[in-house]
Design a protein that fits this description.
Helix content is about 25%, strand content about 20%. The protein has a 5-stranded mixed sheet, sandwiched between helices. Strands 13-12-11-14 form a 4-stranded antiparallel sheet. The termini are far apart. The structure holds iron/sulfur cluster (SF4) and FE2/S2 (inorganic) cluster (FES). The site of FE2/S2 (inorganic) cluster has 13 residues, from loops.
Length: about 325
């Protein structure tokens, strides 16, 4: 075991744990944001630099500070390590720079983007971004690509986190796509189209931290904050069958995996559950899903709609009684 102190909080974690996962074991504000790391995808992380932290003491044996900020998703803790995240002005300044870089090419089309309201970059931008861009050059643009008949790729919005390529590599039979070219010419290869044959390819949509990969069966169906996420399950022979139904009235607009407070799915779901089961009768609905993440989808939460309705009925009765009494 190794003892590590993050933002003044001392924790003990198994050797080989990354700083990010050590922070996640405590939770709360000491957890650095992560745009490319995904605990369920092996090899992910180390691409976006949003999780940078400052190591002010390397270990008990070698207390020298690390000379540069380090990516917490790729740096393992050492016994006696001292880490600063939100308590370091250097980290907060660097994070602002990272957000600015991520937004150099990412279009600010949130008003029409399906991911708005549940977008990691949008949340990161609100927390660490500047109010205006200093970028004057033309942004790179791409044609939208159909990845099979169910997934749409908006390469303009891609932040090259590589998560979808790990889905291709680790959840489908064989890897048929990746990132081609380098620098600002880098893009997700259209070979990704071939993965659509696989029953788990739809998980690319769930792991994408921005609106670059969207579900064509649900695109432009509704703003996410107008829908009710409901936990539901069905007997499925391919996956756990445990999903979230995003409903409007009785209509199922979208089916996704169940995500935790870090935006990661609990378990990957199959394409049949995701794309083909849009009738509420095909599901056993468990109840409203609690959204833990700080996001617009957790505001105005409908979880308490039942209590609100009961309160309204109670007040209506009280008003009616007062009127009757004159
Ligand atoms: S399409 Fe989405 S998941 Fe794939 S690399 Fe781009 S941002 Fe990441
Ligand atoms: S989450 Fe660590 S570099 Fe992206």
């Amino acid at each position: 075991m190794a003892k590590v102190t993050i933002d003044g909080v001392e924790i003990e974690v198994p050797d080989g744990t990354t700083i990010l996962n050590a922070a996640r074991s405590v939770g709360g504000d000491i957890v650095p944001p992560a745009m490319c790391y995904y605990s369920k995808l092996e090899g992910s992380g180390g691409k976006c630099r949003t999780c940078l932290v400052k190591v002010t003491q390397g270990s008990t044996n070698d207390p020298r500070p690390m000379p540069k900020l380090v990516p917490s998703c790729r740096t393992n803790v050492m016994d006696g390590m001292v880490v600063e995240n939100t308590t370091s002005p250097d980290v907060l300044e660097a994070r602002k720079g990272v957000v600015e870089f991520l937004l150099i090419n990412h279009p600010l089309d949130c008003p029409i983007c399906d991911q708005a309201g549940e977008c990691d970059l949008q949340n990161l931008g609100y927390k660490h971004g500047k109010e205006a861009t200093r970028y004057e050059e033309e942004r790179r643009t791409y044609e939208k690509i159909d990845i099979g008949d169910k997934i749409k790729l908006h390469m303009d919005r891609c932040i090259l986190c590589y998560r979808c390529t790990f889905v291709g590599e680790q959840l489908t039979d064989e890897r048929k796509h990746g990132v081609i070219n380098r620098g600002d010419h880098a893009e997700i290869s259209t070979y990704i189209e071939k993965n659509i044959d696989n029953e788990f390819s739809g998980n690319m949509i769930d792991v994408c931290p921005v609106g670059a990969l969207t579900d064509k069966t649900a695109r432009f169906g509704s703003r996410v904050w107008f829908t009710k996420p409901m936990d539901a399950h069905r007997n499925c022979t391919s996956c756990s069958g445990k999903v979230v139904l995003w409903m409007k009235g009785e209509e199922v607009l979208r089916v996704t995996g169940r995500k935790d407070q870090y935006g990661e799915v609990d378990s990957f779901i199959c394409n049949t559950c995701r794309f083909d089961k849009k009738d509420a009768k095909e599901w056993t609905i468990e109840g409203p899903r609690h959204i833990n993440r700080k996001s617009v989808i957790s505001a105005n939460h409908y979880e308490h709609l039942k209590e609100i309705k009961e309160d309204i009925v109670k007040y209506q009765k009280q008003i009616a009684e007062k009127i009757n009494k004159g």
